[in-house]
Amino acid sequence: MDDRLNSKRRQHVEAAREQWKRKLFDMGRRNNLLYFRDMKKGSLRLPEAAVSTERLDAFLAGRPLGNEVLFEGQDPALVASKLRVICDQARANLEEKGIKTLYLAIGLATWKTLDNGRPPAAPVWLVPIEIEVKGSEGTRFEVRRAGERMFNPFMVYALKQQFGVDLSDGAEEDNSGIGPDLNQLSQPIGIPDFRVEMVYVLGNFSFQKLAMVQDLDNLGDILVENDVVAALAGDDEARRALLPQGSAEAPLDPLDSRSPNEDYTVLDADASQLRVIEQVAMAGRSGVVSGPPGTGKSQTIANILAECAARGKSVLFVAQKRAALDVVLRRLADAGLDHLALDLAGADRSKRVVAEQLGKILSRIRNAQGVDAGATHESFSERRNHLNAYVRALHQRRDPWGLSAYDMYGRLLTTSESARLYTRLGDSTMRGMDQDRQVHIRERLKERAALFRQRSSPWFSFDLREPAHAGQAVALLGRPGSCARPGIRSILRPQIQRWPRANAAIASSGSTWLASSKSTKSKFVLSARSWLTSRGLATQHGRNANSAWGASSRNRREAKLHIPRVLLEAL
Predict the structure, then answer these.
(1) Average of per-residue pLDDT across 68-92
(2) Main-chain phi, psi angles of 203, to 5 degrees
(3) Is 104 helix (H, G, I), strand (E, B) or coil?
(4) Contact (Cβ atoms closer than 8 angstroms) between residue 47 and residue 56
(5) Rounded to an integer, what distance in angstroms lies between the CA atom of residue 43 and that of residue 83?
(6) b/e per residue, 488-524, with b = 16+ CB within 10 A?
(7) Stretch 26-50: mean pLDDT, rounded?
(8) How many Å apart are CA 138 and CA 132, to the nearest integer?
(9) Longest Cα pair distance anywhere in the chain, in angstroms?
(10) What's 41's DSSP letter?
(11) pLDDT reading at 140 higher than 70
(12) Mean pLDDT, the chain, whole residue set
């Protein structure tokens, strides 16, 4: 990277870093770590007289505060109601975000702001606590220390940014007391009108985003060198460096034929999920996976974690809410791989807890037994190959139509009932029906059907109701000047020979039939729907159950199958 690009990238990253810090670090007056205000039910201020120095030191040493301190000089019912609300909010923050927000704030610091607005009221010390409700009626409370106390990091950061004063240098705690004397902080230290009021407040305080602000402050050069960060900051060169080489979408065939010995997915995955796993875990690409709840996002994440771990990679998995972490951890546990994850997101994850968890993980890995999965992989490969062969056969395009079985089934399902044909054509007929043949047949059918829709045609609305009518139609076709094409005569005449009654009708009424073409056109109507389909022929022939036609089931079958087939072949 040349100096010009490096300078340009640095400008992008620095500008983005300041914007990110402003979004993360809330300097507004709604931040209760800088501008604390007593809430009607969300906070509880303890009487200063009830919290003596000796009692405070005992509390910091591990002795709980009871009702005698919490209720002194106050309405017991109101105090109990406030404590329940505070506990409910702390429980919700722990369950939804995985953070502990319940603290005892000691001291409120104030100073003159640069905008001359409402002065801050920032808690100085924050002591993690737990509130235990006792008694059958839930009216007894105990407040215990639950962690290491700390200087308010938001106050320290705000004073350092605004006035260049770092209070953290003198904030090392002393386990025998409350640390630096709060009164010493009230001495002039270069902060206009800085002073500390000695108060004690129970409430919920959250400063988890401050760690990200501090990282943005301390990792300047590292952020500039990182292509992903630079791309997010708007640097075009970094974005081009992250573009995938070749297709961004992994082809499905290699994924389906990959050896099971190279596949470490531990949960079910469909084609789209396999592509994500291949791109992220194996190709090392960046991306965004989106989808509504229940579409397998956490399942895909668990598979990516397993793939990366099997390939010797470390993965940092973060989420905004604790519930998302728990879902992925539970999926890993169901697969017997929960020991691969070191959970650092819990609010109670002290150094001791993390060390114990790490020791258990190492012990389990050290004592793990090897697994012979050869037979399982062989069975898996056989079944997968069988399924893949079925899919290929289903979608393979076949001659002479250039359609697959999948395409043909789809077209059949979209065909209306009125367009269905109940005639079954032979294999040789179907094989000869290529694209050109289909076009030819389609055009001929349109041409024939037009004969029965045009009023100027002698065939307009002609209808065959009985076998005798068919015989008369053949006689009409034999008249000089008939408008019917020879192809239709050649089709109908051999079929009439199968109908005994039709032949008799031709012999008995031929002279009358041939005598009056006008009477013929007005009396007998031929419809394409009735004689071009086997259903129409079957209906008309079946009406004369006592005739020779009705008595011969073989003739009926032949007529239903043979006449439409001959029509198609002649067309």
Answers:
(1) 90
(2) 180, -175
(3) strand
(4) no
(5) 8
(6) beebbeebbebbebbbebbeeeeeebeeeeeebbeeb
(7) 87
(8) 10
(9) 134
(10) S
(11) yes
(12) 75
